[in-house]
Amino acid sequence: MDKEFESAVTAICNRYGKYGVQRDLIASLMKSGMEENGLTLRSVYNGMRMSLGVTFGVHETFTVEDMMDITGESREEVLKHIEEMREEVAARGENPDDYAKPVKTPPRSVYIFKNGL
Hints:
The chain is mainly alpha-helical. It is built from five helices and two strands, in the order αααααββ.
């Protein structure tokens, strides 16, 4: 595989290797996602981060662009879902920023997903 793929596998292994996650398994799963499901490297990398983060209780952050890659939705759709989720969380009396926090960066807003979707 290419250097970018190897860098993505290494990043996952560096973060989750201490939980027993093996490099060969990560590489195989990522390769499968790309070859058998037609996903991009960014999509399988972010999906792997999200899945492993939830599995091992590790804090991962995602941008709107990351979520677009994971879900296949447009920016507008992702932002709509974010706002709906923030409203639901606020209605439960919780802080929406604990789930998706807007970060102002000119000329747009970026949301950080502390716990994935």
